[in-house]
Amino acid sequence: MAEKLAKFFIGIFGSISSVWWGKYLVMFIISLFPILELRGGLIAAALMDAPIIPSFIVCFIGNILPIPFILWFITSIFDHLKKRGKKLGKLVTKLEEKATSKKEQIERLKYLGLILFVGIPLPGTGAWTGCLIAALLGMDKKKSCLAAIGGVIMAGLIMLVVSYGILGGILK
């Protein structure tokens, strides 16, 4: 699924990738999005034949940029949205329920659980969901931020192998 979404975004921003910094902008934008995050950014990087190290750095920055905002502000944003209307309240409640349904690993192992949850690139895991869960559980924000960054590094290393190694071998 991440490969299809990465190809979709490459298609949307295809004309930008013709300038030297365009590929990096595409990777950065993809890495900012929930669901795709760094995983999708690195797949896009491999599909666009971008160099490994700069691609990793750009995707890493794109993925960690939302982390502090999620940890420090998401609960107050959710509270505000719940008060704004019934439809928004239902959407927020659904997001909270989805996040808390995946909290067992993080709740049991605390910050190590957060690192593993963010770091193992499976559907429904990642920095966005991990930080949302940490915020909803009331975990220490600074420690959660560091754990999420550690998880992003772990996911990045795994995805480098997948994107440039396995996927790169299949595509070439």
Topology:
Layout lengths: L1 H11 L9 H11 L4 H11 L4 H13 L2 H18 L1 H15 L3 H16 L7 H11 L3 H31 L1
Helix pairs in contact: 1-3, 2-3, 2-4, 3-4, 3-9, 4-9, 5-6, 5-8, 5-9, 7-8, 7-9, 8-9
Structure, explained:
- It is a single chain.
- This protein has helices spanning 2-12, 22-32, 37-47, 52-64, 67-84, 86-100, 104-119, 127-137, 141-171.
- With 172 residues, the protein is mainly alpha-helical.
- The chain has two domains: 2-64 and 155-171, no CATH class; 67-154, no CATH class.
- Helix 2 (22-32) packs antiparallel against helix 3, helix 2 (22-32) packs parallel to helix 4 (52-64) and helix 4 (52-64) runs antiparallel to helix 9 (141-171).
- The relative contact order is 0.14.
Name the quaternary structure: single chain
What is the share of helical residues?
over 70%
Given helix and strand content, the structural type is mainly alpha
User: Shape from CA axes?
Assistant: globular
Summary tags:
mainly alpha; 172 residues; 9 helices; 2 domains; 80% helix
